[in-house]
Design brief:
The protein is an alpha+beta fold. The protein contains three helices and seven strands; from the N terminus they run E-H-E-E-E-H-E-E-E-H. 26% of the residues lie in helices and 28% in strands. The two termini are 23 Å apart.
Amino acid sequence: MTEPTHPEWAFVALGSNLGDRARHLADARAALATLPGTELVAVSQIEETEPVGAVSQPDYLNQMALLRTRLAPHALLDACLRIERSAGRVRRIRWGPRTLDLDIVRYGDAMIAEPGLAIPHPAINDRPFWQRELAELTPHVRHD
């Protein structure tokens, strides 16, 4: 997908369960707000949730950000991965503990199913906290 001709609405989930969880979320929000061609429109409330998967680990702090962005989905994904790495994220165990996890949950009306990028996120209907966060943020989407 090439760069969009107009800004798109993107919902990005933020999660952290290692270190200063609240600080990791705050730093991620700040980094998302500085992405080129991107506006951080709104964020959901922060919610503490139990981890997914069989690995024993601390609870997560989760939040969702609503962005208005000119970044194409792959460029937004690359930016999210850079932000994760800057927070010390190391990928060792699937669904393992992490300093920061950023997931593109939705990007406009895009439907993408590629290795490394699936939009809408395949777990969108399996995470009740994402449903609550989407419901909280959707009223901020303007159709102008």
